[in-house]
Every structure is written in structure tokens, then in C-alpha cells.
Amino acid sequence: MRENVTLEDVAKRAKVSRATVSRAVNKPDSVSPDALKRINKAIAEMRYIPNRHARALTGVRSKSIGLIFFHDIKTLFYTSFWGHVINPIYEKLMSEGYELQIIAHSNLDENASVESDDYTNSISQKISEYHVDGFIVVGQTPRNLESIFNQIRTPVVAFGEPLFTSEAVSWVDTNNLIGGRMAVDYLVSKKKKKIAIITGGLEEPWSVSRFEGYKKGLSKAGIEYDPSLVEHSSNTFSSATNVTRRLMHKRHDVDAIFAANDEIAFAVVQTLKELNFGVGTDVLVVGFDNTNRAIQTYPLLTTVGQDYEKIGEYLVSGLLAKMKGEKVKSKKVTPKLVIRDSA
């Protein structure tokens, strides 16, 4: 017996592609009966039966869930946010007897359209090689997510309301619009009228929804929306620092800033202090997320907190239900204002 038999070897013997062998191992019903027969014959003849493949071929679940992170892996380490998101998912899966595999896949390919058939096929092929029972998707999900998972026929749920509408992909997210309005309601209650916002850009659904919540909060308070109080960052600390400086130079009357996430808020706080504004006195600052660093900065950050435990619970329970063939509705989780010293 050859000890280094690979999927490519099996594919060559069966006269099919490597991806077809992978699908036959993971999802036999996605392969034609003729191809499946040849693949199984080649696997048997070559004695290519690794443990996970053997379990898949006998219909036994792998007891593993893939968490697909549609960003470069380094993004996981930029902030503590993704740790807050992923840890409850991991703990809930462990309690249900499942392992978690983290799969990083950036969808920002400058040389190919992320909506092209070639790109969809490429991702589907790579994802199909993971021997898992289901997928949880986080990060910057591509618009063609439904097409990708239709090809591999594996249950999937997503964290974050997508830009696209999909009946096949269920999702769980914070109610970002309510959270944005909540931040403005609080600042209005503190008698603030020149309330600025720094968004994370208008490409991300969460940022768009928080911006809409900001505008609804102003309208509710009878405050006219003023575009000169709006800045759009690229959702990085350096970008948020630059736009905060620009905002404060053009509008000296700003008395409150709603930052669309905590990372932006940290940049706002630091920049205001550098410009000799009193944070929490001259200018109130409210963030969004309630990450660990919110209690490690000075002054302590007032922020709209996401319920990560409930989000993780809904994602895992939703995926397990889909794995049983049940229909799962998308859910929005209500955030909670966490009041500290910055506002």
C-alpha cells in the first residue's frame, strides 16, 4: 500500500477532477452515480481511506463545523472584536460535541470579479475540501454567498445581515439601526445638539444601518440632519484619526460624536485629547460593540454593546437545525447601551 496516496491520485484513477473526489467524500449525493462508483472503486483499490473520509463515506458526521472568515487572517488580530464574536460560537459548539475549524479566505481578489462564475467555482472547490458538517460565515461575505454554498450543498448560516437578499442563507446580526438610534437618543438626553457621526464607510451593511439609526435618532429629537457633521472612515484607526481631525477643524461647535464602532471611537478619543478637547466634558463620545478595550481606555468608553453570547447561541442553534433539514429564520438581536465615562 502506498502511504502517500492523495486525492489527485484517486482523481486520476477515477478519471475525474480532484474537486469531484472531494465532493464524493463529503457529499456523495452531489456526484453522479457513475462518477461515484468509479471514485469509490479507486478509493478501495488504492486503500485511500483516511479517518474523516471513511466517516463521510459511511454517512457518519464529522462532528466538525467550519467557521469561514472572509477576510485576511491578520484581520482577526487587529482588534478584539472578532474574539468576542468567535468565542461564544466555539464554546456553544464544544458544549454540543462539535469541533471548530477556522478557515480564512479573503474575497478581495484584485484580479478577478468576486461575482464571476470562475470566482464562485474557485471558492466552492476550496470550501468543499473541508470535511465538516456545516459552515458559519463571518467577515465581509461576498454577494454570491448563496451560489457558493448551493454548489457544495452544505448547511450554512452567517453572522451579519448581508447586502444581498437570500432565502437559502440564514443570518444573525445585531439590530444595528436600533443601536444607532439608541446612541443618539442618549446623547440627546444629555442635551447635545451638534451630534456628529463617523461611520465605517457605506460599503458594509452594519455601518449603513448604524448611520440610518443615527439619522432616525436626530429626526425623532427634531434635530435637522447636517451633512457637515458626517464623516466616513475606512474602518481603520488611522483613517478614523484623520477624519476626526478634519471634522473638528471644520466644525468647532461639535458637542458629541457617535463612532460607528469601538475601534473608531478609540481613535476619536485619542484625537480629541491631542486637540485639547475634554472627552466626556467638551465632547461626548459613544462607540458601538463593547469590546474589552472599552474598559481599558481613558476615559472609559460609553458604547452600544452587542450581545455576543446570544448571537453565538443563535448561530449555532440555527446551523444545527439546518443540518437536520429544518428551515431557519434570520434573527436580529437587540443591543444594550453601556454607560461609562466618555458620555
UniProtKB/TrEMBL annotation:
UniProt key word Repeat: no
Xref: CDD domains: HTH_LacI, PBP1_LacI_sugar_binding-like
Superkingdom classification of source: Bacteria
Keyword terms: DNA-binding, Transcription, Transcription regulation
Pfam families in the record: LacI (PF00356), Peripla_BP_3 (PF13377)
HTH lacI-type domain residues: 5-59
GO function terms (MF aspect): DNA-binding transcription factor activity; transcription cis-regulatory region binding
Keyword Transcription: yes
Protein name: Transcriptional regulator
